[in-house]
Design a protein that fits this description.
Length: 459
């Protein structure tokens, strides 16, 4: 490997472990369908790439990869110095492929940006790309990742055939990722714009790595395939038509705090448990962190993440890890603004305090509210919810429920020590509304220390 091009390739190969380098260099030979070293002058054609990746990616994405590989040669200083021309007219050379693999699997945002530019343009060769072109590239990329998850059996217990419209989810996730771009005033993106975007939006690199590693069968021990879906357990799929789809899950799961890695468990669904606020409260409480997902009669899908187990009481609860989100017509997450601490509210069977479930805002003006008279709710945010900075989530400010799901997404809280003594409760604990009203009026809680007699508990 004494020529100048090989020096460039060797610098890329240094990024891989010694035991990984033969795997990377062997991709070219495997695509050729030969055993051992491919004779000099051979190239990888589009048909070879299609044969390797047809079951894992749409043909439009395979063609994007091919045009991208072909474009790499023109950017090599070594090629220009030696007066060599691109092989794009006939195929991809060994050096081009190795550089492509190194930059997609181990490259920086700076190195990946020209590749994304080439894949978005499909070989057009311009120095800028439009947001629409990037969105089309992202749709192909997300479609490929979903196809890989299904084909490789990495669904983690989820059943796409019993879930939402995956093709719509692909478009929504692509639009959300594209919304993070910061184009010029003319709406174009140059390489530096794409570099900044790739640096900030980590999913782009993760999805691209998965596509290349799986599609070209590059098994690297130093970088296992990312787990893009949370585990799903104990879900009655035969009776359920889930509001979520795979791309939406791929978006929502990374929004959870890092420590929330427990399997998702369905604890309430109007499809399974009926339209009952009491039954929903039973599913919400003592379950740990939960994800609430709502579809209204206008077709809007939205919800909220509760970082704590829900408690029925007339005070706000939760912390700044809570958030609101929309799924349709746009995929977005709205996190805490710090303006107030009205993260979660759940109350029932009280006469002077609001009864229902709320997240963000204030009484009568919640960012998300479900009334205890099940079937109605509101999302009032003019101009935005003070707690989460969210706009109106529902189709109408006052909405009617179509479907509700609650998923437990974290470990349930541990039973408190001495749980057998839970019968010893304060008189004020029996009716938290009274306690709340006394606190508001400044009354001294003289009975705070009084306890009810302990009741006999069943063994």
């Amino acid at each position: 490997m004494g020529n100048t091009e090989s020096v460039v390739v060797q610098k890329r190969l240094v990024r891989f472990r010694p035991e990984e380098r033969p795997v990377v260099e062997g991709v070219f030979d495997r695509l050729q369908g030969v055993v051992g070293k491919t004779p000099a002058g051979k190239i990888v054609t589009l048909e070879m790439l299609q044969s390797s990746m047809s079951s894992l990616a749409p043909d439009s994405m395979v063609r994007r990869l091919y045009h991208c590989m072909c474009s790499i040669d023109s950017g090599l200083a070594a090629s220009a110095a030696q007066g060599k021309t691109s092989t794009s007219a006939s195929g991809v050379g060994r050096e081009q492929l190795v550089i492509f693999l190194a930059d997609t699997l181990r490259g920086t945002a700076e190195e990946r940006a020209p590749l994304v530019m080439a894949m978005s343009q499909r070989g057009a060769g311009s120095t800028v790309v439009t947001c629409e072109q990037v969105a089309e590239f992202l749709q192909d990329l997300v479609s490929a990742v979903v196809q890989i998850l299904v084909h490789r059996g990495r669904l983690q217990g989820w059943k796409p055939e019993r879930m939402g419209d995956g093709s719509l989810g692909v478009k929504l996730l692509a639009e959300q990722m594209c919304s993070e771009l910061k184009p010029s005033d003319q709406g174009d993106c140059d390489v530096s714009c794409l570099e900044d975007w790739i640096f900030r939006v980590s999913q782009i690199s993760s999805y691209l790595e998965m596509l290349v590693a799986e599609g070209l069968n590059v098994s690297l021990m130093g970088r296992p395939a990312p787990t893009l879906l949370p585990l799903c357990r104990d879900t009655p799929w035969k009776e359920l038509r889930c509001l979520l789809d795979l791309p939406t899950l791929m978006f929502l799961a990374p929004q959870l705090p890092d420590s929330y890695s427990a399997p998702w468990r369905l604890v309430f669904s109007t499809q399974l448990h009926g339209e009952s606020f009491t039954r929903m409260v039973t599913g919400l409480t003592k379950q740990g962190p939960t994800m609430l997902i709502i579809k209204d009669t206008e077709g809007h899908v939205f919800g909220g993440f509760a970082s704590h187990a829900w408690d029925v009481k007339p005070q706000f609860q939760g912390d700044s890890r809570c958030f609101l989100f929309t799924v349709f017509p746009r995929l977005r997450v709205y996190t805490a603004t710090g303006y107030n601490q009205h993260f979660m509210y759940l109350n029932q069977n009280q006469q002077t305090m609001p009864n229902g479930l709320g997240m963000g805002g204030q009484h009568g003006y919640f960012g998300l509210w479900l009334d205890s008279d099940f079937g109605r709710g509101h999302s009032r945010a003019r101009p935005k919810c003070t707690t989460y900075g969210s706009p109106q989530l529902s189709g109408n400010e006052d909405f009617t429920l179509d479907t509700v799901e609650v998923w437990a997404v974290g470990k349930p809280p541990e039973p408190e020590e001495g749980e057998e003594g839970q019968g010893k409760r304060s008189i004020l604990d029996v009716d938290p509304e009274v306690k709340a009203m006394m606190e508001i009026t400044g009354k001294t809680l003289h009975s705070q220390g009084l306890r009810e007699p302990e009741e006999d508990q069943e063994q």
